[in-house]
Amino acid sequence: MILTLVKKISEIQYWILIVVLAMTGIGMxxxxxxxxxxxxxxxxxxxxxQLFFLIPALVSLFLVLFIPRHVIHKYSYxxxxxxxxxxxxxxxxxxxxxxxxxLDIGPFGFQPSEYAxxxxxxxxxxxxxxxxxxxxxxxxxxIPCIIMIIPAVIVLKQPDLGTALIMMTPLLPxxxxxxxxxxxxxxxxAPIFSVLTAFHMISFTAWTIIMLVxxxxxxxxxxxxxxxxxGNIFLGLLAPVxxxxxxxxxxxxxxxxxxxxxxxxxxxYQIIQSQTAIGSGGFWGKGxxxxxxxxxxxxxxxxxxxVLSVLGxxxxxxxIAILLIGFAWLxxxxxxxxxxxxxxxxxxxxxxxxxxxxxxxxxNTAMTVGLxxxxxxxxxxxxxxxxxxxxxxxxxxxxxxxxxxTPD
Amino acid sequence: xxxxxxxxxxxxxxxxxxxxxxxxxxxxxxxxLLQIYRYEKYKLKAEVNRIRAVTINAPRGLIxxxxxxxxxxxxxxxxxxxxxxxxxxxxxxxxxxSSCTGIDSMDxxxxxxxxxxxxxxxxxxxxxxxxxxxxxxxEHKLDLAGLQYEQFPERIYPSPIRGSHFLxxxxxxxxxxxxxxxxxxxxxxxxxxxxxxxEKVYEDQLRGHKxxxxxxxxxxxxxxxxxxxxxxxxxxxxxxxMVTIDATLQGLLxxxxxxxxxxxxxxEPRTGEILAxxxxxxxxxxxxxxxxxxxxxxxxxxxxxxxxxxRISSGLYPPGSTFKIVTLLALLENRLVDxxxxxxxxGGYILGDREFRCWKEGGHGTVNLREALIQSCNVYYYQVVQxxxxxxxxxxxxxxxxxxxVGIDLPSERAxxxxxxxxxxxxxxxxxxxxxxxxxxxxxxxDIVVTPLQMANFINIIATAGKAKRLHFSKxxxxxxxxxxxxxxxxxxxxxxxxxxxxxxxxxxxxxxDPRIKGVVIAGKTGTAENPHGEPHAWFVGYGKKGDSLTxxxxxxxxxxxxxxxxxxxxxxxFAYLYGPGKQLAAQVTx
Lengths: 408, 591
Known about the structure:
heterodimer, A: 408 residues, mainly alpha, B: alpha+beta, Beta-lactamase, 2 domains, five-stranded antiparallel beta sheet, 20% strand
């Protein structure tokens, strides 16, 4: 027993663990900078908290690491069921700030949708690896879609479209990995693009041309191709009409779905502040604790969602580059492990988790520099927050476990 | 188990690699653009010009009485704040401010620590500054880098009435309060929040929404100009609250009760509107705005008369003889007693081994139903209450709203207590009490306690024969009917008849409540409630009507003695005001 554990530990990709710990360390440094300059009562409050959260996070990582892979495989649907029940639970609890997202269990403020993300990946991996699926058929995509959509729809009602979309992101990479035709993946996503581009004339025109090219290259039967093409165009033309017929409050409800934390001061203001902070950091940064812009505190969640602004201002482009390259290395390493993995289940779990990390990294970073609208999403390992840190470390535990390239 | 083989073509690996690298390059490119290509621009922006969001405080809504007279108003004061990251030496700044304004620099330092939230967030140093003090500060502006001032509307009470128990007060949000309000609150340290009374209940209406204006300031914190392109948000003042109070009547009754501990509550049964709400002793309404001296504070806090207690909604009293009305209603409704049946009152009544006393030493002689109520004969009620079951009596009390809150628009209200057989069993044990206990309850004594508010609700139900509306303060709220027992029309009529007798009969205990104004009819019931704290409490509950107008009163004087002698005369003054020339005069003045 102990021998197998030791053997397992000797085989893990310890570089992944080292990089992750380093990133957590960088996060702590910025937290310390934020908290130490708050003089008086607050001294290193969030810094100490984060340090405290790291203990259960590491314990969970090793627990997950030592669970035999076949056990995870066996119970993946049970886990999935529990996760679905879990994300429905907050509907029965008290609302926090008008939304049903948090369960109050212990000091963590347990957020079930955080854990549902990777459980969904495991369940989908199980489904896709079990069957000798004919991935070439469009119909084979139906059940995988359902597996991912059920939890996403529940979360959507909480209300948080962003989290729902993030939860859905592993679907496409995993389907692609297991051999679905790219054309079919295009069919799945096309309606979303048709609706979104419909509000901008040039984008929509460009989209119709791109669509035409893709459909032509996909070589469907003529009737199907025509139906797909005009169906999407029709949908796109319909969207603004429906939108215009909605009452103002209905529109606002949809808009807040996209962005529940819409700041009353205006999101543009946050972005300007964030960009000024980052831009004024320059190549080397202003130095630890010297960031005047971040200490202006105009960014409401600088220790979680806008942590990159603090790092960018105080430690400059060099730190950002180290971080982003580190993240890229981490994700590429996971993809590599997925490629060399002996069995399909492990490969799919790794791909799924890699896409969860990539989506978080991209959305958070792009938001900080004003590439996409403000969406409250933390940066893995670096941002402050116990529940999210725990979930990230569990995912790393899974990566290390599934990354071991010997049979279970 | 995990036997599905992992056969992934190399092409897929390359595609996924490509996507990850592509996304990373986009992000890195963006950072390169911001931090290296446009570094000079952002550096300048950060160092020379800082955008500062300045909040503009919104005044709270006013509270006005039913005729529009201002009960609660705002007056402008100034607060000064300091931005920790922009001041040089704290000690020097405080010394300078102190010499300009005369405020003790120790106080400034204490406030600075109390309101400190971060290096670049203004921390409040002092409030309630006058325009003159601000002018002096403005002259020395160059020595006071990092110091700011803003207008701050403070509560003021222009009306001669106090009304502190229903108006309530506002409090400054401190760290404790802020933590309790939760994460997403819009309250900041130093903001005002309704903490008691109507200020609390109507907080959402009264509170305004702060505005924001964006200022560009230089490195020394001096304002360079407004920021173009940023949307300013003007402050939205709170909405005014019109209350049902008649300030003249309220003031009259506050004077009337100055030397008592007690309450006077005047309301309109048909609308539920409260015209006067006096709980004595009270406290000055600006007690909590900070203008009060420590000595005055301590005096009020340690006062054995408990001026902070709202006796109307939270004072619990035995109702005494006023509760004979409940017993009477039960008897009439169930036809349990013949109006002509008589009882011989000799001043006492013996049941088992106990003697129950009537309040009149020599007894009332022979009394029937009418005489027993009018003269408030206990012996009669000792006998007739035995025709009722305990449950029957307790159920009727509860249907009239006793033993639970009335539901007035104030933050707190007590429920009182109506004993039931279950209650008696758990309190005194299965065999620890006897049926004779009901004899006490019939005359409103024993464990029973009610709030004056419940009594007002009760008399309103009787005055309207079951069509009373819920008691309330806000003039603009929609009011529902009070839940009442369904009784026969003859029962309502008979009870109201008898209550008029209490005031108009030559032996009536409530004669002193009659203002002797033509066309005005008064009805009511007195009570003299024995209690362990000395002299009995004096009650008068009743109503007066003239034409379409109907007004009820509840008077309670703690340890005042006989209800007929102490409470009823105060009721008379209310009716004299409402139906005499005084009211018209007051109405004309306001117009």
